[in-house]
Every structure is written in structure tokens, then in C-alpha cells.
Amino acid sequence: MTAACGFAQNFGQLFLARVGVGIGEAGGSPPAHSIVSDIFPAAQRATALSIYSLGVYGGILVGTVGGAYLVQYFDWRTAFIVVGLPGLILAFIVRFVIKEPPRGMAESRRDIAPPGFFKVMRILASRKSFKHLSFACALHAFVTYGMGNFMPLFLGRIHDMPILDIGLYYGLIAGIGGLAGTFFGGWYSDRKSNQHGDMRWYIWIPFISTVAAIPLALITFIVMPDGYSAAFFYLLPVFFGGFYLAPCIAATHFLVGIRMRAMASAILLFVLNLIGLGLGPMVTGFVSDWLTPTFGNDALRYAMSLTVLVNIWCALHYYWATKTIREDIALAAD
């Protein structure tokens, strides 16, 4: 469907192709999360999920840097086609090479009949920690998407960086920082949880990284004197911003039975994307437009800074989730 965007002849066709991309992406991750949790034991689960999640920032790295060059020297249609066609090859590899593992292969929990959607919803609704965890993830994504979607515009509008340099530097920084942060967040949460025998570390790691990202992002947007220093310093908030995903997915899987993991991931990602991707860029853009009559081009700088402060609200929900996460995990169905 990504390649189909390159063949679109009008807005309606491009819109439908992008809808297809969204459907494909949404349908892939929840079952993949479940398969990873089946294969890897609890002590290694967040690390394994972090490796799977590297694809998000790997795609940013390849797509942004490669896409910038393709658009610069060819056109936007070529960029969509070149980036999208390898997905067909990967689809065949997944279909014929990757085998379906037994549910709960890496643990001794008893397999049961798959529950219905509403049963999984009732179970998750009864877990107080999941309510806070899912909303914290959504707010985390709100900040991540609000910053990330406008960072290229920030570099161009505020610092007059050329478009090719924006694609290169932003792609490298966001990709490398996100890759490193995503892996480290999963690995370190496993390490601390195993070291202390305390499952709350799967929440404490996102909590700490969320707080740490606030001053680093503000320095990026307000203090850095030029686009190149801002782009390089942006590595730090992106690094810490990537910590949350793998430990939060792992924590969600600990809260439910082995036949509920894909649905639990789907619900978590639905909340995350509805608020994070749905509102983060929109609210940031709205605030920037609202501030423009007063601050001119600097309005974007201040709008992105205000978006980052949502991390304070996010951190509170992570903290509240730590209060009941151990008790809720103990209630998880066999």
C-alpha cells in the first residue's frame, strides 16, 4: 500500500492508499507482540519486544534519509514506490518462513480457549494499573508525535536549514536516538526487574525517562542557537523518549492470560494512537497557529515546548500505575 501511494493520481486515491497503510500497520503489531511473548520468557520479554520495536525507528531512519534523497533527485512518487516495494518481499518471507509458535511456549502457564473481545476488555478494565499505564503511554505518544512531526518544520522555519540537510540530520538523529532508546528501555527494564525481583521496574523506567526528556527537549527548542546543534541535541530527548514502548507492552502482557496478549496489545495501541497520533500533532499545530500573531515564526518553538510539558501529566500516570501493578499481575489469568 505504501508503493500504491506513488501511483495515486488524485487526493482520493492517495487517501485510500494511506488508509490501507494504516490498516496494514495496525493489524501487524498486536499478533507480533503475542508471538514474541510466546517465544521469550518473562525475564527477557521486554528486551525481545524492544528488538521487534526497533523497526519503528529503523523505518524513520531509512525512510527519512532515503526519502529525502529520492525526493531531492527524483520525485515523491519514486520515494513511495522504492520504500514500499521491499515490503512485498518481507511479506512472503513472513508467510512462508516464520512458523506459528505454541501459545505460552516459553512458560508454564496453562493454555486456554481464546476469550472474546469484551472479556479481555472487562479484565483490563478491572486492572487499575492498566488504566494508568495505557493513558500514560497515550500521553507519551502525544509528546513524541507532537515533537517528531514538527521537528523538520522547526529546523527549516526557525533555523533555515536546507531540506536535504533536514532529511539527513533529522533522519539520522531521530533514527539512531530512537533505536538506541527503544532497545535500552526494554533491556534495562528487564535487567532491573530481574535484579530486584520487582515488576514495577517495567513502569519506573518509562517514568524516569519521561521526566528526563523534559529539560532536554526544552534546551533543544529554546536554547540551541542553530539548526545543526538543535538537531544533534535532539538525540537526547529522542533517546529517552524511546524507553517506554517495550516495557509498557511487556507489562500489559503480564496483566492478562496467554490467549489475551494480542488483544491487550491492540487495545493499548488503540488508546496510544487515538490520543498520541490523533491529537499530538493536531494540538501542537493548533497552538502554534494560535501563538503566531504574537510570536511570529517563534510560535512553533513555544508550541513544541508546551507539548513537552505534557510529560509531567504522563509521569503522574506512570507513578500511579506502580501503586497496583504487582497486585494486578498476581490476578492475571492462567
UniProtKB/TrEMBL annotation:
Native source organism of the sequence: OM182 bacterium BACL3 MAG-120924-bin41
Gene3D superfamilies documented for this protein: MFS general substrate transporter like domains
The protein, known as: Major facilitator superfamily (MFS) profile domain-containing protein
Database matches in PROSITE patterns: MFS
Superkingdom of the source species: Bacteria
Positions of the Major facilitator superfamily (MFS) profile domain: 1-323
Biological classification of the source: Bacteria, Pseudomonadati, Pseudomonadota, Gammaproteobacteria, OMG group
Topology within the bilayer: Multi-pass membrane protein
Keyword Transmembrane helix: yes
Keywords: Membrane, Transmembrane, Transmembrane helix, Transport
Segments passing through the bilayer: 49-70, 76-98, 129-148, 168-189, 201-224, 230-255, 267-287, 299-320
Major subcellular site: membrane
